[in-house]
Design goal:
Keywords: Membrane, Transmembrane, Transmembrane helix. The chain is mostly helical. The chain is built from 15 helices and 2 strands. It has one domain. Helix 9 runs antiparallel to helix 15 and helix 11 runs antiparallel to helix 14.
């Protein structure tokens, strides 16, 4: 094995000397393709511009390219590579059982982000998502694909998806993009940018009638506006305290679903506010055990605007992780949360902590935690967050 590592190190040296930017462009190119695949998967463009098999190829190819970067170009010793491959084997087995490979693919890009400037990652994230949103809007407006229009049971207001599979998916994607842009600006927005944020928030609410994302967007704007005060407060909190609070929230979300009963007035009010999420989570706990390494749970959602008689879907990312991907992956998620807080405290960039807390908050009620076209936060674990300023003479 030592001989193999020696050969690998020699090859790495030759490649980096001849192509200094190879590592960066290989990763960003692969990331662009994979985010494109995941973004398209959340639109009505599937089976119109691209097939499900095409989505698979646009997922597997980038993962392979990033694997080459990890093995041949990054600074990993033999122990690191062994741990990485063992984790991928476990996640592949879990993905096979659950019939969902989002976490398996995500790990390639988390580890592969080593040495990559986070600003470049955020620009790719924003650019690809904006392109897909625009593409879906154009084709849905032309009538080439379905513009999903739904209503709530308690409201006659029309909710438009504009080419996305469901209005909430569009609203959530815009929320994550607003966070990414705010991070790119270091939480320092100009007056026109604040006006744009408020206008975009109102527009998305009018179009999608999504209450939770409205509150999250407003909360984000408030956090940006009062960032200096929040920054002082967050400096007093350790990574351990932030992790503990986050884990308590995660277990609270899970327990609300587990103990839900319409007989409990408070839980019923929460369930109604969350559009019945607690009810379906409770059904999952009643019908399935918590697996060690994943299991398949049949789900039938409203995505695509089709009439569904036997609706059943788990929205909470934490309940999905525990019930679909198993106890091992759930525990790995808790470790990941701790490691990210440690990283953010180490570099003293508290706007990352604010965004991560918002992601943890929204993941209690939506399913996008492991989707790279929404959640960019996990990519920060190995990426370079401290952008080096050019020295001018």
């Amino acid at each position: 094995m030592e001989e193999l590592m020696t050969v690998r190190n020699k090859l790495k040296t030759k490649l980096t000397e001849r192509f200094p930017e190879l590592s960066t462009w290989l990763y960003l190119g692969a990331l662009s393709i994979y985010i494109l695949a995941m973004s398209l998967k959340g639109t009505m463009l599937v089976d119109f511009l691209i097939t499900q098999r095409g989505i698979f190829y646009l997922s597997a190819l980038p993962a392979f390219l990033v694997l080459l970067k990890i093995v041949f170009l990054d600074e990993h010793d033999l122990k690191d590579l062994v741990i990485f491959f063992l984790l991928e084997v476990v996640l592949f087995a879990v993905g096979t059982s659950a019939d969902e490979f989002l976490i398996f693919y995500f790990l390639f890009f988390i580890v592969g982000a080593q040495g990559i400037n986070i600003d470049q990652i955020l620009k790719v994230f924003l650019g690809v998502n904006l392109f897909v949103i625009g593409l879906a809007f154009i084709f849905s407006s032309l009538g080439s694909v379905k513009n999903v229009i739904v209503t709530r049971s308690d409201s006659p207001a029309l909710r438009f998806a504009l080419g996305a599979v469901y209005p909430t998916d569009l609203a959530s994607r815009v929320f994550f993009m607003m966070m990414a842009y705010a991070v790119l600006k270091r939480f320092k927005l100009t007056v026109p940018e604040y006006i744009s944020y408020v206008a975009l928030t109102l527009l998305i609410y009018i179009v999608t009638d999504t209450r939770i994302d409205l509150m999250l967007m407003l909360l984000l704007i408030i956090c940006i506006f009062f960032y200096e005060r929040l920054n002082v407060f967050l400096k007093k909190l350790s990574a351990q305290v932030l992790s503990l609070l986050s884990i308590l929230y995660i277990f609270l979300i899970i327990l609300l679903g587990y103990f839900y009963s319409p007989q409990f007035g408070l839980l019923e009010k929460i369930n109604n506010f969350l559009s019945g999420r607690l009810f379906y989570e409770h059904v999952a706990f009643e019908n399935y055990n918590v697996p060690i390494l994943g299991q398949f749970i049949y789900q039938n959602g409203f995505g695509g605007g089709f009439k569904v008689l036997d609706y059943f879907y788990l929205d909470s990312s934490y309940v999905r992780t525990l019930m679909m991907h198993g106890l091992v992956v759930f525990l790995l998620l808790l470790v990941l949360i701790y490691l990210l807080f440690v990283k953010f405290k180490k570099v003293e960039l508290n706007y990352w902590i604010i965004c991560f807390l918002l992601v943890i908050l929204t993941s209690g009620i939506d399913q996008h935690l492991w989707n790279i076209s929404y959640n960019f936060i996990f990519l920060a674990l190995f990426a370079d967050l401290l952008v080096k300023k050019k020295v001018t003479e």
